[in-house]
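To: structure desk
From: M.T.
Subject: fold request, one chain
Message: Could you run this one when you get a chance? Sequence is below, nothing fancy, just the single chain.
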Amino acid sequence: MIPIALTIAGSDSSGGAGIQADLKTFSALGVYGASVITALTAQNTRGVASIHDVPAEFVTAQIDAVFADLAVDAVKIGMLASFDIVAVVARGLEQHQARNVVLDPVMVATSGDLLLRADAIDAVRRELIPRVRLVTPNLPEAAALLDTDVAGSEVEMRKQAAQLLAAGAKAVLIKGGHGHGTESVDLLVDHAGFTRFAAPRFATRNTHGTGCTLSSAIAAGFAKGLTLADAVSDAKNYVTAAIAAADQLSIGKGHGPVHHFHAWWKP
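Reply: Done. Structure tokens follow.
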């Protein structure tokens, strides 16, 4: 049977991030994708014009419908927008005993637009982080979750990951894409130690949806039965190749998307 992954996230009307990026990633990696939409965004490669939250009770209805019929092997959580939505997602995960959950604590879009309201950040810390298998914050997101400064070195990244473990996380992948240098370094930290994943940093502005793509690629790996380290390694390789091929596309006038189907077709 084909593995099944569920994405719980917001919709990106330009197709580069959110639900659209997640479903593209699942398909590219041989996993059937289901979706629960938490918010509708009017956005493009230059920014977010408007956000419409899906009513919390309808988010619950979507979660219930999916789990009532599909054998979900893994879950990716992205944009949640509000306190109420965080709460119903947490309850849904517990009620349906969801497994292999990856939490991408989406707070700010590539364009800089705010995607998670301040009152929801504490709810993410309390209600979701202890319930998931892996949390995947980028450098600014890790700092926001801990109410501290953005890490400026790998040593500081490890310290912040350890703080998130102390807050209840089972494993943390701190993403270094917002860092500097010739390498983009992600650190996977759990209670057994840490693993460093490095890849070349490409000179491109077409990085819209990279965080969504990485977390959904990890969820795809979990759905296929990969270990934590192997799922992260495969996802890192996939995203690196998608970024390397991003300039083959010519989408929009701002931060264009990565090339999710780089292995299958070229413009």
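Reply (cont.): Residues 228-244 form the longest helix (17 residues). Let me know if you need anything else for the meeting.
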